[in-house]
Amino acid sequence: MAKRVLTTVVAAALIAVLIPTAAGAAEDPSTPSTTPSTTPTANPPTVEPVDPPTVEPPTAEPPAATEPVPSAPSKPVQTPGPSAAAAAVTISLDQPATAWEDRPLTFTGKLSSGAANTNVTLWQALPGAWVLRGSAQTTAGGAYRITYTSTYAMRTTFIVAVGPKIVGAAALSPTRIATALDRKIIINKPAASYITLTGVAVTGYLTPSEPGREVVLQDLVSGGKWRWLTSVKVDAKGNFRLPFPDNFPSNRAVRVVSRGVPATAVEVSLAARVIVKAGLNAKVYAVAASMVPKTYRSGCPVAPSSLRLITLNYWGFDGLIHKGELIVRDAAVQKMISVWTATLNAHFPIRRMVRVDVFGGSDTQSMAADNTSVFNCRQVTGNPYALSPHSYGYAIDINTVENPYLAANNVWYPSNGLSYRNRSWSRPGMLFTGSTPTKALVGQGYFWGANWSKPDYQHFQPK
């Protein structure tokens, strides 16, 4: 009997303990069955993406590409459970397909009840909280579709809840990992430096390729502003080649930016540094008769086979580098390269440097165009009875307007260079004893025509 009484007392005590707990659960059906490690708020704040940081120019080599991409937390928040009253309702969540950042991720699934017009919400797990990312109403059969566009690359956990809240949701889907890939503009590493007028370009590619997408090359100018240089459309593989101004020396930070997309979808590459140095870049080629149709004819003292074409860079009067060409005797090639290397390094300006054939072989027209030239098989201007030293491919005329000459017939050539007869007034392009071209040619064994009784300030020929 005592044992029965004791048993009854113990049972009554246990019932007294359990009843308040059960009553409490019935009064608050929103209490989750599993408590998250960090309890989210009823209306978690939406995380607003930030603009990409400004690309600072590198001080030396461009920085290596980095992945400033938030990843899934190492310890994500614990997934809350559905309410006790929702045990009979379930909701599925399909595995979302991987997308690029700034393109929508699509989340689909359905309610087991098949109910339409039910509110469902999409949540993303961030460190310490679940963040609301979208909502939708179910359609016929309980299906739903929610899209979310991330403005940065990510790989994080998502869940769908039945109702407007995740805490106390009528049902929760399984969790799924969603991935947004990093859209990038990659610049190929530039060379350590380039030579002027060698076709310098900034190359790279887009990921994803996006054929036809327009990209813009910018350089950093004073005040920290980026200036538009040029633009192109990428090819079928996403590659691009953006010409870089290489007609003057420079050392500039550059970047490539996508164009023709919404502001949130603009991609900016890492900065790179492009260095262009002034250089002669002389190239020597054999000469065929077809290359000198107006300055060579049968009976000239030097055949085309003994001539060479030199292409080289020179400073123009406009402060930019230009490419010129000279037809010279083969034995004079190295002397000319030495002379014009010194002239380029001294920034001595040259107006024009093309074959006299461009002017139909006319020395008068070539001089009036302020042309610097060497070979022209012709008579001496102003003296039809003498063969010009230019016929041998050694003599050279430089800046013919700024350095006119008095011909044998006592006429100054060219007529548009008469103001330069006054040699006491020094102007750009004029030749004097201390001028770099003068010193360089004299050093190579040339004689300057300015010392003749009829001065020829433009003319040099071997002694």
The count of strands amounts to 25
Q: From the helix content, strand content and strand pairing, which structural class follows?
A: mainly beta
The largest sheet has its strands arranged as 1-7-6-3-4
User: What is the rounded Rg?
Assistant: 41 Å
Architecture overview:
This protein has 463 residues and is mostly beta strands. It folds into three domains: 84-181, Immunoglobulin-like, CATH 2.60.40; 184-276, Immunoglobulin-like, CATH 2.60.40.10; 283-462, no CATH class. Helices cover 11% and strands 30% of the residues. The protein has four helices and 25 strands. The chain has helices at 2-27, 333-345, 363-368, 436-443, and strands at 99-100, 104-110, 119-126, 129-137, 143-149, 154-162, 176-181, 184-187, 194-195, 201-207, 214-221, 225-233, 239-243, 250-259, 272-277, 283-286, 307-315, 321-329, 379-380, 383-387, 396-397, 405-406, 412-413, 446-448, 459-462. It has a five-stranded mixed β-sheet with strand order 1-7-6-3-4, with no helix packed on it. The chain has a five-stranded mixed β-sheet with strand order 9-15-14-11-12, with no helix packed on it. It starts with a helix and ends with a strand.
SSE diagram, text form:
Blueprint: H1 2-27, E1 99-100, E2 104-110, E3 119-126, E4 129-137, E5 143-149, E6 154-162, E7 176-181, E8 184-187, E9 194-195, E10 201-207, E11 214-221, E12 225-233, E13 239-243, E14 250-259, E15 272-277, E16 283-286, E17 307-315, E18 321-329, H2 333-345, H3 363-368, E19 379-380, E20 383-387, E21 396-397, E22 405-406, E23 412-413, H4 436-443, E24 446-448, E25 459-462
Helix pairs in contact: 2-4
